[in-house]
Amino acid sequence: MDFVPWKANRLTLRALLSVWVGLSLSCWRAQASVATAESSAQRKSAYNFSKPFLGLDKCNACIGTSICKKFFKEEIRFENWLSSNLKLPSSYKVSYAGNYTDDSENWRVIVISRLLPQYKHDLSDTRICSSAHRSTCSIESVLKSTERFQKWLGSNLLTPELVQGLSSPMLRCPSQRLLNRIIRRYAEVADAGSIQMNHFREQDKLRLLYTLSINQHPIILQIFPGKEGWPFPRYHGSCGRMMVTAGTEPLRRYYGAPLETVADLAYQLLHITEFLRENGLSYLLYYTAVSADMFGTFEDGRLFITDASTIGVIDKQEGYPLEGRHKEQQDIFSCLSMDCRPFPSCQSVREAQSLLLLCKEILPKLLLSRQRTNLHLHKEMKLLLHDCSAAALSDKSIIHAAKELMLLLKPLRPCTQSFPYRYPECKYNTDY
After folding, report:
1. Which helix (H) or strand (E) holds 242?
2. Buried b (16+ CB within 10 A) or exposed e, 14-52
3. Rounded to two decimals, what is the model's pTM?
């Protein structure tokens, strides 16, 4: 057998190793390319079926399209939306947790929500087709052909007559000043600085009318924004029949929490309710119904109204509108939300209505959900809650009881870093 020098063997080994590395690298690149293609295909597949899920296929019978680019650039994401087992969430669910970014590095918690559960949207669409005596139809075409929408097209000013008969609580007692504010603040069109709808396209008018008919929640957030001191979360925008708002923690998770926590939340509830009653713009915003799901907190502990769908609005500057000055118009838009219950007249709304509902439905569950160590304090809270929720008492007495309850709760709120929304200001400012 011929002798092969060690140097030659080493060169051979190097050559073999180089070939092996080259083949391995090529294989890895091929696998990576396949994986990337599969991932891209998965994303494409996900967003293909997300269009009907978002409701884009039903526009312009939708909320808007102002934030769609964020969805398709993946700057707004559902939790686990692009996971390996892609599944559509339940059609009974209204809201979904998500994340939002402007720079792909810093992500904020958001809520992606429908105006109605999907099955109710489907029922509403079926009713629209039925109103045109069809089993299937173009939702947009049927709505555009209605008498009400034709009146909207022929007017450059949103007047009380155009919203008569809509089920939104905020439109039961509309003033011209309130309707002008809707046009000026409507975020799904570029602000033209005018109360005239000259800059509204036909599709813009349909989207606004559809939103007001289905659920007023996004409109309230737009015309009374949190950045101006109103107790509502930020409205980021809409895509199809989905809207995006800042994320919060639900109030009900604090039932049974320590006294300092519930005292702080109860104080905030009373404070924001009082602000809705008395504010610099002379609007009375009142609750027509309340639930724990209606309120939530941010990470800093600040409390907000996260569901504004049941809030009525009365313009105290222009006064209560005259009942029956227009014939109540009932049409397909009147019951699109499937909530066709009659609302009380404007004159029947009490000034203390919100406090009555709050003290009866929410505050007892928050403050009295478990026995407190201070029995005297517990009894005093119970007595004030009784007076605050007594419909037989005058508005003045109810408001007085609510203010006394706030005075009782205020010193129970500790000035610590556990409540960053008012710390360290609470050390130096008696308002806290």
Report:
1. strand 242-246
2. eeeeeeeeeeeeeeeeeeeeeeeeeeeeeeeebbeebbe
3. 0.85
Q: Give the span between the Cα atoms of 307 and 68, in whole angstroms.
A: 22
Beta bridge partners of 245: 111, 235
106 residue type, one letter: N
Q: How far apart are CA 167 and CA 338, in angstroms?
A: 9
Confidence band, pLDDT 50/70/90 cuts, at residue 405: very high
347 falls in which pLDDT band (50, 70, 90)? confident
**Is pLDDT above 80 for 27?**
no
The predicted structure's pLDDT at residue 50:
66
Contact assessment for residue 220 and residue 170, using Cβ atoms and an 8 Å cutoff: yes
Residue 192's Cβ-side half-sphere holds a number of Cα atoms within 13 Å equal to 13
User: DSSP for 283-309?
Assistant: EEEEESS--GGGEEE-TTS-EEE---T
Average pLDDT, the chain: 85
Classify residue 123 by its DSSP letter: H
* The two structure tokens encoding residue 271: 């404070």
